[in-house]
């Protein structure tokens, strides 16, 4: 589940969903479960399931983020950097990343 597509697309999608929920729903206690569930459904639809990414939606709501730029920077850019760090680490240790289905 920590494959490059899942990490980058899952985090970015969840951030967009969280921002939309923060803008459209005034009550955070209502917006949080709706955003988390919609982001997980969206990740399933895009085949980029990354369960920790649902937290990006919650962070956007709890942080009162109302700018969609937040989904691009820092969320998407930091996700790309995280994947690059994983690739560098795997090259240094000899462990294959990303995993290829057999």
Description of the molecule:
With 102 residues, the protein is an all-alpha fold. 72% of the residues lie in helices and 0% in strands. The chain is built from four helices and no strands. Helix 1 (4-24) packs parallel to helix 3 and helix 1 (4-24) packs antiparallel against helix 4 (69-93). The longest helix has 25 residues, at 69-93. The chain is elongated and about 50 Å long. The two termini are 15 Å apart. The mean pLDDT is 95.
For the CA atoms, what is the radius of gyration? 15 Å
- Give the percentage of residues in beta strands: under 5%
Please describe the biggest sheet, giving its number of strands, its sense, and whether it closes into a barrel: none
Tell me, briefly, the overall form: elongated
Intertermini distance: 15 Å
Q: Given the structure, what is the number of helices? A: 4
Task: List segments where confidence is low: pLDDT < 50 over at least 5 consecutive residues.
Answer: none
How many individual domains?
A: 1
Q: Return the structural class.
A: mainly alpha
- Portion in helices: over 70%
Instruction: List how many beta strands DSSP finds.
Output: 0
Average pLDDT, to the nearest integer? 95
Chart the SSEs and their pairings.
Layout lengths: L3 H21 L3 H18 L8 H9 L6 H25 L9
Helix pairs in contact: 1-2, 1-3, 1-4, 2-3
Task: Pick out its properties.
102 residues, mainly alpha, 72% helix, elongated
Quick description:
By secondary structure, the protein is an all-alpha fold. The chain has helices spanning 4-24, 28-45, 54-62, 69-93.
């Amino acid at each position: 589940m920590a494959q490059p597509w899942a990490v980058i697309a899952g985090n970015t999608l969840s951030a967009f969903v969280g921002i939309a929920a923060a803008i459209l729903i005034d009550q955070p206690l209502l917006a949080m479960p709706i955003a988390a569930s919609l982001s997980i459904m969206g990740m399933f639809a895009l085949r980029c399931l990354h369960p920790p990414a649902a937290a990006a939606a919650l962070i956007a709501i709890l942080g009162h983020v109302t700018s969609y730029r937040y989904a691009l920077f820092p969320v998407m850019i930091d996700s790309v950097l995280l994947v690059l760090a994983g690739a560098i680490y795997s090259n240094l240790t000899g462990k294959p990343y990303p995993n290829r289905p057999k």
